[in-house]
């Protein structure tokens, strides 16, 4: 497979022509009476026409046939993709899933779209405000089939198996430890190379942005130059039996036939594009003195709500880094949160739970549901010598954190059969260590190296 080329930057005004058709982008205007190469001009709007400039998103696509030339859509059955948040009773428990099962190709061929399973979500695609979390488990490429989501944006996190994503804007290869974002309305098709699994964060009514950096300054976290955007690529491909276009619209799938590939865009320009990002490029910032920084310090992308500082969803990672905090319980703290936390694991393990939370599985700690390190992690890290050490080496856990109170679907609760009924047991061995006769000097006698200089100065 030839190396793919990409443009670089986040949300730039890009332009790209398939090298087979130089000059395909009209010069100086978007709608010439006749476009170069006799292409059709088509605008894809990702924001209201009237959005302020800073939030205005659109691209112009120059294509062989406009998207409108398709037969009527009809409803398509899908058993496990849903936006019905009332399928099962609410459950405030800590939930954890074993790795989601990938179907065996010999038993059933499943492609990316049919392999989408909704785990949880909230809100309403019609009201343009909400979130859905899906896992995809598939084994077959989409052949003469493409998909677009009318409801929102997909942030795709491959966990097992690379995916080859053909989009209207060009092609991307996305491997585990990379992510891609396919925004609302963009046609794409996914090729796979074996048993394939990953996670999808869908947001309705907002696009992902880089978080503001505040006092961090002008650089750091996910740097804009590390985002990769495909270059224009077209196929002039007619399919006798019909090419199937699938749209997710108001939570349901619809399919329509047309006689040609939708990947017929010869040139495009604009700031509304798909993109990918390698999580290895994340410039990690964290505590260099004491205490545990909140995980928002690891935010890669955020989909903002209209409330200042409150996200519809944040995509947060727990990357390999140094742990050096002095006189600190270094792993995540025990907490209760006014946000929902869905976690997944791409590879390795997660520091707050060495066992039980496995790559390809997940967990959901709902709004105000208490959670934190398991008993093992607490005991170990309360006694550990606090030398500088690598944390999370060779691992990558992530969190979809949302201000929405999410409902779990029937698939998530029952059908997937991966819910770990014993999850709560990981906290059962937690014992009281309360000592009413405790004094600072008894603490000092027990403490490992890396004591608190301020406490020492106080004594
Ligand atoms: O619950 C979790 O494991 C995620 C998490 C990590 C952390 O370092 C601090 C808070 C938090 O919710
Ligand atoms: Fe948490």
UniProtKB/TrEMBL annotation:
Pathway: Amino-acid degradation; L-phenylalanine degradation; acetoacetate and fumarate from L-phenylalanine: step 4/6. Keywords: Dioxygenase, Iron, Metal-binding, Oxidoreductase, Phenylalanine catabolism, Tyrosine catabolism. Residues 281-434 form the Homogentisate 1,2-dioxygenase C-terminal domain. One of its GO terms (cellular component) is cytoplasm. SUPFAM superfamilies: RmlC-like cupins. GO terms for molecular function: homogentisate 1,2-dioxygenase activity; metal ion binding. Homohexamer arranged as a dimer of trimers. Residues 5-279 form the Homogentisate 1,2-dioxygenase N-terminal domain. Its cofactor is Fe cation. This is Homogentisate 1,2-dioxygenase. Catalyzes the conversion of homogentisate to maleylacetoacetate. It catalyses: homogentisate + O2 = 4-maleylacetoacetate + H(+). GO terms for biological process: L-phenylalanine catabolic process; L-tyrosine catabolic process. Its EC number is 1.13.11.5. It comes from the Eukaryota. Residues 444-459 have a biased composition (Low complexity). Pfam families: HgmA_C, HgmA_N. Homogentisate binds at residues 350, 371. Fe cation binds at residues 335, 341, 371. The active site is at 292 (proton acceptor). Belongs to the homogentisate dioxygenase family. Residues 438-459 are annotated as: Disordered.
């Amino acid at each position: 497979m030839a190396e793919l080329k990409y443009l670089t930057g986040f949300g730039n005004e890009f332009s790209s022509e398939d090298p087979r058709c130089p000059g395909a982008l009209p010069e100086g205007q978007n709608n010439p009476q006749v476009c170069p190469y006799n292409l059709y001009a088509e605008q894809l709007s990702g924001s209201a026409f009237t959005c302020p400039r800073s939030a205005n998103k659109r691209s112009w696509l120059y294509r062989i046939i406009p998207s409108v030339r398709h037969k009527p859509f009809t409803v398509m059955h899908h058993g496990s993709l849903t936006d019905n948040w009332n399928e099962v009773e609410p459950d405030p428990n800590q939930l954890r899933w074993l790795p989601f099962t990938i179907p065996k190709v010999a038993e059933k061929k499943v492609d990316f779209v049919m392999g989408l399973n909704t785990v949880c979500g909230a809100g309403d695609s019609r009201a343009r405000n909400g979130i859905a979390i899906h896992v995809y488990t598939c084994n077959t490429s989409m052949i003469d089939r493409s998909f677009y989501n009318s409801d929102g944006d997909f942030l795709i996190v491959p966990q097992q198996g690379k995916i080859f994503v053909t989009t209207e804007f060009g092609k991307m290869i996305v491997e585990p430890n990379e992510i891609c974002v396919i925004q609302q309305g963009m046609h794409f098709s996914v090729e796979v190379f074996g048993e394939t699994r990953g996670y999808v964060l869908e947001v309705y009514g907002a696009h992902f942005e880089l978080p503001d950096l505040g006092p961090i300054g002008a650089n750091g976290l996910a740097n804009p130059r590390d985002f990769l955007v495909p270059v224009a690529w077209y196929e002039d491909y007619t399919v006798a039996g019909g090419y199937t276009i699938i749209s997710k619209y108001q939570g349901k799938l619809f399919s329509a036939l047309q006689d040609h590939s939708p990947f017929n865009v010869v040139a495009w320009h604009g700031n509304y594009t798909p993109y990918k990002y390698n999580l290895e490029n994340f410039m990690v910032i964290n505590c260099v003195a004491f205490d545990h920084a909140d995980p928002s310090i690891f935010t890669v992308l955020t989909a903002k709500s209209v409330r200042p500082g409150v996200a519809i969803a944040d995509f947060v990672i727990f990357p390999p880094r140094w742990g050096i905090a002095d006189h600190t319980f270094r792993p995540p703290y025990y907490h209760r949160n006014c946000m929902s936390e869905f976690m997944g694991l791409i590879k390795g393990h997660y520091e707050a739970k060495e066992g039980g939370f496995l790559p390809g599985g997940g967990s959901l700690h709902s709004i105000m549901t208490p959670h934190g390190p398991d008993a093992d992690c607490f005991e170990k890290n309360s006694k550990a010598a606090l030398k500088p050490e690598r944390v999370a080496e060779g691992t990558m856990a992530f969190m979809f954190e949302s201000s929405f109170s999410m409902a779990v679907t029937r698939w998530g609760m029952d059908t997937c059969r991966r819910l770990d009924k014993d999850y709560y047991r990981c906290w059962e061995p937690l014992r009281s260590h309360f000592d009413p006769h405790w004094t600072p000097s008894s603490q000092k006698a027990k403490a490992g190296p890396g004591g608190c200089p301020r406490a020492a100065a106080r004594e």
